[in-house]
Specification:
The complex is a heterodimer of chains A (291) and B (134).
Chain A (H helix, E strand, L loop, with lengths): L3 H57 L14 E7 L9 H11 L7 E6 L1 H9 L3 E5 L9 H16 L3 E11 L5 E9 L3 H11 L2 H6 L1 E3 L2 H77 L1
Parallel strand pairs in A: 1-2, 1-4, 2-3
Antiparallel strand pairs in A: 4-5
Chain B lengths: L5 E7 L2 E8 L1 E6 L2 E5 L6 E5 L2 E6 L4 E14 L2 E10 L6 H17 L6 H18 L2
Parallel strand pairs in B: 1-8
Antiparallel strand pairs in B: 1-2, 3-4, 3-6, 5-7, 6-7, 7-8
The chains are: A alpha/beta (291), B alpha+beta (134).
């Protein structure tokens, strides 16, 4: 049986850990709210962006366009968005698992990492990490997404990479975050067309004019589309990260509570045992004297 | 007055930049300057860096719109701007510096500078300076 002092020391240490997890939970709650409202504000933009791109794609039909077909021989690029800091439950390892579970050969994949945790995890799993933009996840800016997009499209048009994927955590609501793999390029025509059947209003697209011509407009709009997807993923990933951390810290705090409870019990029992022992010793001593 | 207005929405990734009933919108596209009144023909155009003038029923506001595109439907106009700024949000000094830098880069024509990029930077800074002018 551990001594009273040991139990007390243990209890104190758990208590101070609990204070830390509690504080971290509060911090991530506040950050989550900020990230959430940011994600919501930018949502309209992506909705419109998506609709416009789908409309244009539908009108211009299945044409030959460099952004529409996979290049040959190049590698597959994966943008893996994770966090810089841990203690967020399965948030980071879920992304690494997601990348790992795809049906591709590790040798054909290059990783554009955003977030130190994911970068290290994927490196350990044997992926080639081509670039590291971990700073941008702290405070994602639209221009960050633009820069990354420029770099990717450049690599794409020069044939170094043939496909671009985006691995991020979709923020469904405060408690549910889904690791998602999204194909950015080449644009999946079938998928886009399927979705557009629901979205597009026939009268609006029949009349629409384009300035410049569709093909040229596509050249300008697709990079913007990719950029906005990347930015959207960044913003959602930040919200998910804080949501995941909040949950993890919440359960850590309640676990600590439980442990403190059982240690308290142990401590009281040890104290009682100690008192009983002392009493027996005194009585024993007194009896020995009197006899 | 009320029947010659249309609904205008300017959306940037960070926020809903502008929403309201307007009489006319003037902005710059890659094909040139356009002015949009009610019942414009449906059009999708790509924006070039420039000053947008938004004329409401009895006032006019200016804003710098930098890249993005505009979708014009019968009675509704939506601008998706990657960067949209009100005049009082613009740092004129910084824009001025950016203009000088871009001009210098264009003048040098060094092999390693990206001319398209430099001229875009120049357009951006000019748009900002113009928008900030009273």
């Amino acid at each position: 049986m551990p001594s009273m002092r040991d139990i007390k020391r243990r209890k104190n240490s758990i208590q101070s850990t609990q204070q830390i997890t509690k504080a971290m939970k509060l911090v991530s709650t506040v950050k989550l709210q900020r990230a959430k409202s940011r994600a919501e504000r930018s949502h309209t933009y992506f909705e419109y962006m998506y609709q416009t791109v789908v409309n244009i794609l539908e009108r211009s039909g299945y044409m030959e366009h460099p952004y529409m077909k996979a290049g040959e021989g190049g590698k597959k690029a994966v943008i893996a968005i994770t966090s810089n800091r841990g203690l967020a439950g399965g948030y980071n390892s879920n992304i690494a698992k997601l990348v790992d579970s795809q049906e591709w050969d590790k040798k054909d994949v290059v990783v554009y990492a955003i977030g130190k945790k994911g970068r290290d995890m994927l490196k350990r799993r044997g992926y080639e990490v081509l670039s590291d933009e971990s700073e941008m996840i702290n405070e994602p800016l639209f221009s960050d997404a633009q820069e990354l997009c420029d770099k990717l499209l450049n690599d794409f048009s020069e044939g170094r990479i043939s496909e671009i994927y985006l691995a991020y955590t979709h923020f469904r609501n405060t408690v549910s975050h889904v690791p998602t793999m999204l194909k950015l390029l080449p644009v999946n025509m079938q998928e886009a067309a399927e979705k557009s059947e629901i979205d597009a209003t026939p009268e609006s697209k029949a009349l629409m004019n384009y300035e410049p011509e569709e093909v040229e407009a596509l050249n300008m709009i697709i990079p913007k589309y990719v950029t906005s997807l990347i930015y959207g993923a960044l913003v959602e990933a930040v919200a998910s990260e804080n949501g995941a951390r909040m949950q993890a810290m919440d359960s850590a705090t309640s676990n600590a509570e439980e442990m403190i409870g059982s240690l308290e019990l142990q401590y009281n029992r040890a104290r009682q045992g100690h008192i009983t022992q002392e009493l027996t010793e005194i009585i024993g001593g007194a009896e020995a004297l009197s006899s | 007055m009320a029947d010659n207005t249309f609904k205008l929405r300017i959306i940037s990734p960070e926020r809903m930049f502008y929403e309201g009933e307007v009489v006319m919108l003037e902005c710059r596209t890659t094909e040139g300057e356009i002015g949009i009144l009610k019942n414009h023909v449906p059009l999708t155009a790509v924006l070039a860096p420039g000053v947008a003038k938004i004329r409401e029923a009895d006032s006019e506001v200016k804003a710098a719109l930098i890249s993005g595109f505009i979708e014009i439907l019968q009675d509704e106009v939506t601008v998706l701007a990657e960067i949209a700024e009100w005049p009082d949000e613009i740092d004129v000094k910084r824009a001025e510096e950016a203009r000088i830098r871009a001009e210098r880069r264009l003048a040098e024509k060094a092999a390693h500078t990206n001319l398209a990029r430099a001229s875009l930077a120049l357009q951006r800074s000019i748009a900002r300076i113009e928008a900030a002018k009273k």
